[in-house]
């Protein structure tokens, strides 16, 4: 099964444009990897991603790539709640 996920806005405050681009790329790679390995929970569809609001997450990682990957893991774990 494949899904197309389109993200309208992804904001990484306090980053330069280049850092935000690196974080967004890491986010996309991590989310794709999680979906490829685990898929979506039974009964969930890609449309359920529209309903997830992660709000503001604390920064626990330092690099843009780590922050992007952390955000993807947080989004993915919300789907499994």
Any descriptors?
2 helices; about 80 residues
Question: Could you provide a short overview of the structure?
Answer:
The protein has 81 residues and is mainly alpha-helical. It is 47% helix and 0% strand.
Quote the average pLDDT.
81
Q: For the terminal residues, how far apart are their CA atoms?
A: 21 Å
Structural class: mainly alpha
**H/E series:** HH
Q: How much is the radius of gyration in Å?
A: 13 Å
Please estimate the helix content: 40-55%
Shape: globular
SS strand fraction: under 5%
Largest sheet: none
Uncertain stretches of 5 or more adjacent residues? none
Q: How many distinct beta strands?
A: 0
Question: Count of helices?
Answer: 2
Record the SSE blueprint:
Elements lengths: L16 H22 L25 H16 L2
Overview of this protein structure:
The protein has 81 residues and is mainly alpha-helical. 47% of the residues lie in helices and 0% in strands. It is built from two helices and no strands. The protein has helices at residues 17-38, 64-79. Helix 1 runs parallel beside helix 2 (64-79). The longest helix is centred in the middle third of the chain and has 22 residues, at 17-38. The two termini are 21 Å apart. The model has no long low-confidence stretch (mean pLDDT 81).
């Amino acid at each position: 099964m494949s899904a197309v996920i389109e993200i309208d806005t992804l904001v990484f405050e306090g980053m330069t444009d280049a850092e935000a681009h690196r974080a967004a790329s890491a986010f996309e790679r991590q989310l794709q990897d999680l979906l490829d390995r685990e898929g979506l929970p039974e009964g969930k569809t890609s449309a359920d991603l529209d309903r997830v609001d992660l709000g503001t997450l604390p920064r626990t990682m330092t690099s843009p790539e780590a922050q992007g990957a952390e955000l993807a893991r947080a989004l993915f774990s919300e789907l499994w709640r």
